[in-house]
């Protein structure tokens, strides 16, 4: 099981269930147990996909460009 949550900086992060602390790339260490869980999944691939979608939502999807559009 993987859980997806957000850091205070707004970044979406996933971690394996049972992990109590996770360090965000912004430098903050997050106490996973006190976080509101956005989503959860059994599949690692799905977890990373959800995180990517959450990031695109936050940044307006501007970073999403396929190679044929460049
Ligand atoms: Zn952060």
Please describe the topology of this protein.
Blueprint: E1 2-6, E2 12-16, E3 21-23, E4 29-31, E5 39-41, H1 44-58
Antiparallel strand pairs: 1-2, 1-5, 3-4
Bound molecules: zinc ion.
Entry summary:
By secondary structure, the protein is an alpha+beta fold. Helix content is 21%, strand content 27%.
Description:
The structure is a single chain. The protein is built from one helix and five strands; from the N terminus they run βββββα. The model has no long low-confidence stretch (mean pLDDT 88). The chain has a three-stranded antiparallel sheet with strand order 2-1-5, covered by helices on one side. A two-stranded antiparallel ribbon has the order 3-4. Helix content is 21%, strand content 27%. The protein has a single domain, classed as Alpha-Beta Complex (Rubredoxin-like). The structure holds zinc ion. Zinc ion (ZN) binds next to loops.
């Amino acid at each position: 099981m993987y859980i997806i949550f957000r850091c205070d900086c707004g970044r979406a992060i996933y971690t394996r269930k049972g992990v109590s602390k996770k360090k965000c790339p912004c430098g903050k260490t997050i106490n996973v147990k006190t976080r509101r869980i956005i989503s959860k999944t059994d599949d690692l691939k799905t977890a990373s996909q959800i995180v990517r979608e959450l990031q695109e939502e936050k940044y307006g999807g501007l970073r999403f460009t396929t190679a044929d559009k460049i």
